[in-house]
Design a protein that fits this description.
By secondary structure, the protein is mainly α. It is built from three helices and two strands, in the order H-E-E-H-H. The longest helix is centred in the middle third of the chain and has 83 residues.
Length: 159
Amino acid sequence: MADALKYKRQELIELAGRNKIVVKIAGNEYTLCGGEAVEYMQKVALYVDRKTMEIMKANHTLSTSMASVLTAVNVTDEMFKLAELSETLQKELEQSRKALAELNQEKLLLAQQVQKANEENKHLLLELTRREAELSEVRNALARATGDNPPKPRLHNIK
């Protein structure tokens, strides 16, 4: 008697966190118990009911139990295909993440190269401006020495 009470108590503890609903599948009522939300369990039962009814409509000679087995086979097939698709998508996601990391690394490298090129360009523009100023001084000195009008200086935009 003590063992029976202990078993019942354990059963009540296990059921405490579970939901219990009555659903109708292929015209028969079933009681479902589970830790999932009631709405989810109803959604699952409705899906199974629709699949079973599709099979029974396609072949009127099938018994409910035969249609249920075919439903289980079809749903299991869907599950395997979805699991395979999920695995394929996970692999593609991982490859995409790796490619993105490589592109980000390349972007960083290119940004550094652009910065270096901009610095070199700025240095070269400063050098060009300095040399043009020197050339302008030489032209002005030559113009003064020969009595000609000095040419107008060219200016460069330095960033």
